[in-house]
Amino acid sequence: MLETLAIGTAGGLLFVVAHLPGGLISGAMLAVGIAAMAGRPLSVPPILTQSILVVLGISLGSVVSRQLIQHVSAYPVTIALLALATFCSTFGSSYYLQRVHGWDRTSAFLAGSPGALSQITILAVERGADLPAIAVAQTLRVIALTAALPLLLALGGLAPATAPALTMTTASPLELAGLVAAALALSMLLRLVKFPASWMFGAMIASAVLHGMGLIEGGLPPWVRNVALVGIGALMGSRFARMKMKTLLSHLNAAVGSFAIAIAVSAVFVAAIVLTTQVHFADILVAFAPGAMDAMLALALTLHIDPVFVGAHHLARFVFVTIATPGIVHLFGRPQDDVDD
Fold this sequence. Notes:
Blueprint: H1 2-17, H2 23-37, H3 46-62, H4 75-101, H5 105-112, H6 117-126, H7 131-155, H8 173-192, H9 198-212, H10 222-237, H11 245-276, H12 281-288, H13 293-302, H14 307-332, H15 336-340
Helix pairs in contact: 1-2, 1-10, 2-7, 2-10, 3-9, 3-10, 3-13, 4-5, 4-11, 4-14, 5-6, 5-7, 5-14, 6-7, 7-11, 8-9, 10-13, 11-12, 12-14, 13-14
């Protein structure tokens, strides 16, 4: 654990010194990922992962204001389009994997499904799918988006290389204690009812309510947020610790092609929304990016992008994928009898 955090911190600081956008997340992720692929046994324990997600949730909630919900009226339309984009992306990627790389239908559909990785893994085991191939495709997509999105936004002048301070002040010790207590309480409550990403969303909702009602002013100290950003980057990079280089290389072409199809489909919907609504391009780009929910919300935090809009859309995608993917696999994947045989 200490080695993982040390490598992640070094990578994050290197990217910050180089003035790269989203440096703490991207630098930590790439440094840990490279070290993991080189054979280092890197990992982030569950208790630390949960702590990181709670801190990120509190930080996201602390920037919520009336100005940030000005596009609420557009949510139903954009969320409906997100559902359609997810459907088209899944079928487009799976068709590519079947026709070009000869994957079986079940593995192709699960590899092309954006998000809900834990549910995808369970389905893959149950249906006898190619789990290593699916893991490569899913992991590569998350890593590529997390590394590329900040650079794309910065090069387009849509996000600063160094995000401005999210809050002008740090809350008092008493306010911080109340904020943490409320965040933990709601997170555990949501976990009991099996709410997706409960640690992050519970803390975010609690923080947003307390700040929105004016009960708390200010947020976490900047260094705490920075530690959490390094932590989430290290967490994503450590996914490569369980992946052999041979496995990665054998499925790399298929994963890159599938990712390109998913990005092309998402780009069509992003362009349509940008041209027909008043939603900011950076907000819609991160909201529609088919990446991991925690990673995209962390990017929203560090790039000063509307966390309410991004969070609502990634939560909607998670719910859609969780509900729809089993049905899609049942209808279009291999028959269960074939799997049992």
